[in-house]
Design goal:
Layout (H helix, E strand, L loop, with lengths): L12 H26 L9 E10 L4 E4 L5 E4 L5 E4 L3 E4 L5 H16 L6 E8 L3 E5 L5 E3 L7 H7 L10 H35 L17 H67 L4 H88 L3 E12 L2 E7 L10 E9 L2
Parallel strand pairs: 7-11
Antiparallel strand pairs: 1-2, 1-3, 1-6, 4-5, 7-8, 9-10, 9-11
Pfam families: HH_AprE, Poly_export
Protein name: Exopolysaccharide production protein ExoF
Organism: Sinorhizobium kostiense
């Protein structure tokens, strides 16, 4: 026997008879309800089922609960459900009663049971239905018993609302808002362009563009751009001043080194004269060799110092050239940056002009169509319904009304057509 067996409880004859009668009554009521609610319903893919299996053992007078088989199962894409020990069972197109009977037969046959287990199959969740067409929110919705076409349409928010000109009014308002944003952006770009042109022309003042005369808020934008120009100008002047100070310092250092080099050259000349005089005296035997050596050392020291001065002067001149180049690069980079910003601003202005023209065209079209929408408001809608339902494995379209019952898996199509009164 399978390991899922639960120990039963022995019952006396009288007690057993009462239990059997009660079980028959309960089973009769349950089967009546199940038959009334699911008699005509045929299972399909995505249906969720609740299966319960129990066995009455006549010989032992006990009830065995097949808990390993009981549980919730979903009808798969193949149209079957898979139960432990039992395996795959076809479910699609069958009723819950038919499926429950086969489960009992399968278990009895598989385990060679004397008494057939009693299986019950209930609907845990129906497969969804679908709304398509002129509804507010098309899509997938859960099924509930006693659902009609009208109730299903209400799940989707009802019929799609006719605008009667509201859509055109909404389009006009949206286009108007976008146009206002584009105009504000264009005004800001026009003043930015005026500021860039003033900076490129080395002018101290930004002139308000003629397109923005008497435009509200233009003076505030102009003041902002002027403040930005002053800030950028101060930053550039500080950078140029710093480079100018560095160049002045280096120039002073070069001049100082030049004077120091002249002094060292004079000292070298004097030292070499002393050395030559001592050489003459040494040749006559009137000078000591130690004095001659000291003068030679002095000449060498002065020459070394003069070489250091020349090296420092050369390095200072290199730093001066670098500072001059940095100053030139700063001015060139600044001019290039201004030119690039002006070019980008011109491109943005061109793009905004095109967008603004499109937005205004849409506004004009919305105004023209609003008159047509007013005429459409005098018309009524003819709404029709149909249900696409599978029959014999093939979809079939069925004409329906608001009170037509809906089944799980149905696709409800809602169409609407204008009809002149």
């Amino acid at each position: 026997m399978p390991s899922i067996k639960k120990p039963g409880r022995r019952c006396g004859p009288g007690m057993l008879l009462q239990f059997a009668r009660a079980a028959i009554c309960v089973a009769t009521v349950f089967c009546g309800v199940a038959t009334a609610s699911a008699e005509e319903y045929r299972l399909g893919v995505m249906d969720k089922l609740r299966v319960r299996v129990a066995e009455w053992q006549t010989a032992e007078g006990a009830v065995r609960d097949w808990g390993a088989v009981s549980g919730e199962y979903t009808v798969g894409s193949s149209g079957s459900i898979s139960l432990p020990f039992v395996g795959d069972l076809p479910a699609s197109g069958r009723t819950t009663t038919e499926l429950a009977e086969e489960i009992g037969v399968k278990i009895q046959t598989l385990f060679g049971l004397r008494d057939r287990p009693s299986a019950s199959v209930e609907m845990a969740q129906y497969r969804p239905l679908y709304l398509h067409g002129e509804v507010q929110t098309p899509g997938e919705y859960p099924f509930a018993p006693n659902l009609t076409v009208l109730k299903a349409v209400s799940l989707a928010g009802g019929l799609r609302r006719a605008d009667s000109g509201q859509r055109f009014a909404r389009d006009f308002i949206q286009s108007s808002g976008e146009s206002a944003v584009l105009v504000a952006e264009r005004n800001r770009l026009l003043i930015r362009r005026a500021r860039l042109r003033a900076e490129i022309g080395n002018r101290d003042e930004v002139t308000l563009p003629t397109e923005l005369k008497n435009v509200p808020g233009a003076n505030e934008l102009l003041a902002s751009e002027r403040a930005l120009m002053e800030s950028r100008d101060k930053r550039q002047k500080r950078q140029l001043a710093a480079l100018g100070d560095l160049k002045s310092l280096l120039q002073s250092e070069i001049e100082s080194l030049a004077k120091k080099a002249e002094t060292q050259a004079r000292q070298l000349e004097l030292a070499m004269q002393d050395r030559d005089n001592v050489d003459s005296l040494a040749d006559k035997g009137l000078a000591l060799a130690q004095r001659k050596l000291s003068l030679e050392q002095r000449v060498a020291d002065v020459q070394s110092s003069l070489l250091d001065i020349d090296t420092a002067s050369l390095k200072a001149k290199q730093e001066m050239n670098k500072a001059t180049q940095d100053e030139t690069n700063l001015r060139d980079d600044w001019d290039a940056q201004l030119a690039q910003e002006l070019q980008n601003t011109e491109a943005e202005l061109d793009a905004l002009t095109l967008k603004l023209g499109t937005s205004r065209d849409l506004m004009a079209e919305a105004l023209m169509q609003s008159a047509e929408a007013a005429q459409l408001a005098e018309q009524s809608l003819n709404v029709s319904y149909s249900i696409i339902r599978e029959k014999d494995g093939k979809p079939a379209e069925i004409a329906a009304s608001e009170n037509t019952p809906v089944l799980p898996g149905d696709v409800i199509k809602v169409t609407a057509a204008m009809a002149i009164r």
